[in-house]
Here is the input.
Amino acid sequence: MEIKARPMGPYQTNCYLLEHEGKTLIIDPGVGAVDWVIKEARNPVAILNTHGHFDHVWSNAELKERLGIPIYTPEADAFMLARDPLGQGMPPSTPDVPVPPDASIEIGGVPVTFRHFPGHTPGCSAIEVEDLWFCGDFLFRDSIGRWDFPYSSAEAMANSLRKAMRIKKDYRLLPGHGPETTLRREQRNLPLWIQEVERSI
Here is the structure.
């Protein structure tokens, strides 16, 4: 596997290209991602969204039109792609495949699991391919995603952090913002974050 990454737009949202067995998965194409993706993606087969916030899905529609490939979005966040709930003027898009929570599917022959960790958004997911998590705005290096946006939930976030604490296998985490980390490393911080989130409930 080969991973290419570039931070996009005013929030420096990481857009990833995962090259796997001759296929390219485009993950979280945010603001201004189109030209870079078209230049760098060798054989694009799908667009995958970790969640529905504008800075992760801004370029969905243009890439779908220009490349003729489907969009996979967590089922519970599909409405965000059309409604632009944060009011940023996001170009609307429609997922071809609304992915159910914790579903394991094949995309272009690549086994993918959308691990469901709601809280930041209702459908927030870590996209798992082998030992990689493209974890969007769920976990960052030394931090977690915000739980105070419209459609966020502190209670769901606390439960998702507990769910992540229970996972025994380590994963390489490629977050939506900032540098990569590992699940094992972030699990050391999660009890304190759970307490922080619970104080806001």
